[in-house]
Automatic annotation (TrEMBL):
Record's protein name: Acetyl-CoA synthetase-like protein
GO molecular function: long-chain fatty acid-CoA ligase activity
Membrane-spanning ranges: 12-30
One term under GO cellular component: endoplasmic reticulum
Organism: Obba rivulosa
Record InterPro entries: AMP-dep_synth/lig_dom (IPR000873), ANL_N_sf (IPR042099)
Length: 578
């Protein structure tokens, strides 16, 4: 072998060594930094030091602290519902398809409120009104008008509750869409109830439906309300923040009618909790557009809508959130539903409040598109780099790999929404433990996994948006049933309690907990955003025990980790709207 051969090899070795050293330095220089300090994630709730036998310790959000006061409202100025329409902010934004400023919204609500009393003859503190409306600006106007005049509203999260509510809680008046009138009248005649509801319709009723009916038109009430002098001062009547302004009816897990009474205070607390989902550094601003899959007829959906109104963002709900659908829905896919608001004149959404199936379908569509449109090698490299970033707690939409592989796929699937979306809050069902990482890679925006409940305004539990940790699947531990072990293994954590909630588990296995197992039991919550269960004959959910005052059984099972992050599994699958 000639000498030169050795020399060539040596050169190559040196070059390779240099390259390797260079890569090592580069890797360390550009190693992604965790976006949130791990210590913060290690302690997400403040956990009480003692626990009652058979119960977990009580957990509160770390931001609230064990002795801290709950942030009951966004600021001290939001005492009642109308205060969430801040009089000092007057930039227009679009709600569904109406561009409107706060002063205009307040005027319309005031006029409609006058009309309800003077034209329709409703009586504050006596009348009550069923809001049988799809999510719309009319819903908000009516809601604000009723709440400001101390006339409680009823909402239904499903049309199947209409007959039971008319039977058990006949309202003084019903506000509904003109198109829905024939259906409603049929139902009222069928039920042969004696009470005569006043009916107010949005839109133009069909002549033949209204022949001899005392019908009121929404727009006429509003128009006449403008000219009525409500004794001059609209501040004449200011409702008490502790007053029940709405009863949100839903079907309990066992299918019975249940109602959540919410006070102004409960809802402002829900808005305060919803605002706290995003860290201060990326707080909601008037530049945002919020899209929600949760009906205004649910306390959670209502809290999201009023969060949007409080923050001055544009807002719309997805098609699937609409409740007043008489002949069943035309079948739409989750993706079509997600983009259903593209037909509205609202800007492209920046924040989505959606269900797990929406997230799932969106992420899979992006991943499929990315696989299809790039080579196998590029796709795999991109996936591995983004995954490595996640393991370091780092997430960006702007890496080389996004530009090379994922950006185009996102645009293909989401259109201009690909560029605008900056956060997604998922709730209303279990998020599969395996689903979060692909979703984070595909969408590369902060994801919050939240737990919501039909009795609570705003989120109950919610994960930190930048908590990217994933944990190996656990196996069954001592003291855990096989079913629990299975259910909790495949469920993503929903984080600590929101800022206005205390949570604990009841019926935990004491010996197992003493041996170091994580407590598992029935999830109980309380706090200012929790509504009160309306007293119906059989209300098994409310805890009557005096000692346990204020605690509400959610009806779901949960497990809490030592750092106060929860996993929840629904015992009975809930209806489509949470
Ligand atoms: C919470 O605690 C669990 C169990 O101790 C641990 O695996 C995990 O690191 C913690 N979770 C977070 C988000 O810090
Ligand atoms: C409510 O919204 C749904 C979904 O868009 C629609 O199908 C239905 O017709 C609406 N109901 C009324 C009465 O307008
Ligand atoms: C809901 O609001 C009422 C009155 O404002 C308040 O007394 C109650 O404590 C709130 N609910 C809970 C569960 O705290």
């Amino acid at each position: 072998m000639a000498l030169s051969d050795y020399i060539v090899t040596d050169d190559l070795t040196i070059i390779l060594a240099l390259a390797a050293a260079g890569l090592f330095v580069l890797h360390n220089l550009y190693k992604p930094q965790s976006l949130v300090h791990p210590i913060l994630l290690g302690r997400q709730s403040d956990v009480a030091r003692v626990r009652n036998p058979g119960e977990s310790a009580v957990c509160r959000n770390y931001g609230t602290g064990m002795l801290g006061r709950f942030p009951m409202r966004p600021t001290k100025d939001q005492q009642v519902l109308l205060d969430l329409v801040r009089p000092d902010a007057d930039a227009p934004r679009t709600l569904w398809s109406t561009k409107i400023t706060n002063p205009q919204l307040r005027e319309r609500a005031a006029a409609f409120g006058n009309g309800l009393i003077e034209v329709v003859g409703l009586v504050p503190k006596e009348s009550n009104v069923l809001l049988l409306l799809n999510d719309s600006i009319e819903f908000i106007i009516a809601d604000l008008a009723l709440a400001s005049n101390s006339i409680p509203s009823f909402t239904l999260n499903s049309l199947s509750l209409l007959s039971p509510v008319l039977d058990t809680h006949p309202p003084s008046a019903i506000i509904t869409h003109a198109q829905f009138l024939p259906f409603l009248l049929e139902l009222i005649y069928d039920s042969r109830e004696s009470s005569h509801h006043k009916i107010i319709v949005v839109g133009e009723p069909d002549g033949k439906d209204v022949k001899d009916l005392p019908l009121f038109r929404f727009d006429e009430i509003e128009r006449e309300g403008v000219s009525i002098d409500s004794d001059g001062d609209p501040a004449d009547h200011v409702p008490d923040p502790g007053e029940v302004f709405t009863v949100a009816f839903s079907a309990s897990p066992s299918g019975e009618l249940q109602g959540a009474e919410l006070t102004h205070e409960n809802l402002t607390a829900g808005v305060a909790a919803a605002r706290a989902l995003l860290p201060l550094s990326s707080a909601i601003s008037p530049l945002d557009t919020i899209a929600s899959a949760f009906s205004l007829s649910t306390p959670y959906g209502r809290a999201i809508a009023y969060t949007a109104i409080y923050e001055g963002t544009s807002f719309a709900t997805l098609d699937s959130a609409k409740v007043v659908v008489k002949n069943g829905r035309s079948a739409t896919t989750d993706l079509e539903d997600l983009f259903s608001m593209n037909s509205l004149p609202v800007p492209s959404p920046t924040l989505y409040f959606v269900k797990p199936s929406h997230l799932d379908k969106l992420a899979s569509a992006v991943i499929e598109e990315a696989k299809k449109s790039s080579s196998w090698i590029m796709y795999n490299l991109a996936w591995r780099h983004k995954f490595a970033g996640l393991l370091e707690g780092f997430l960006t939409k702007q890496s080389l790999w996004d530009r090379l592989v994922f950006d185009a796929a996102r645009v293909k699937v989401m259109g201009k929404g690909a560029g605008t979306v900056r956060g997604i809050v998922v709730s209303g069902g279990n998020v599969d433990a395996q689903a979060l990482t692909p979703a984070r890679i595909a969408l590369s925006v902060p994801l919050v996994n939240a737990y919501s409940h039909p009795l609570v305004a705003g989120p109950v539990l919610a994960s930190h948006p930048l908590d990217l940790q994933t944990f190996p699947l656990h196996t069954q531990k001592a003291g855990q049933s096989a079913a629990d072990a299975f259910a909790f293994t495949y469920t993503s954590p929903v984080g600590p309690p929101s800022v206005n909630i205390e949570a604990k588990l009841v019926g935990v296995d004491d010996p197992a907990v003493e041996n170091g197992a994580d407590p598992v039991g029935a999830l109980y919550v309380r706090g200012p955003s929790v509504g009160k269960l309306l007293n119906t004959q059989d209300s098994p959910v409310q805890e009557e025990n005096a000692e346990d005052k204020g605690w509400v059984n959610t009806g779901d099972r949960a497990k809490v980790a030592p750092n106060g992050t929860f996993k929840v599994v629904s015992v009975v699958a809930k209806g489509s709207s949470t």
